[in-house]
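I have been asked to look over a protein record a colleague put together. The record follows directly below this note.
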Amino acid sequence: MESENKERNTWVKGAVRLGLLLLVLAGVYIGMPEARPYVIGTLWFLLISVVIGVVVAGVLRWWNERTPVKTKEEEGIRLHLNDEEPRK
């Protein structure tokens, strides 16, 4: 239960920080017309970074679902857990 609360708190903190960043960028965009190209560039950078992160996370999840960490034949080999054969 405690780990769920920590995970939820992490997501909430991240969302609050992202909201504050967007609020500051909106304030700079509205308040300083000469800074608008920089704000737009920053928003594009953030958007592209998020898209790349989502794509990488999706590919890693897809890869891990289809590629087993250990095959059935290798389960006891590395840790010498197979007691039927004597150790060499």
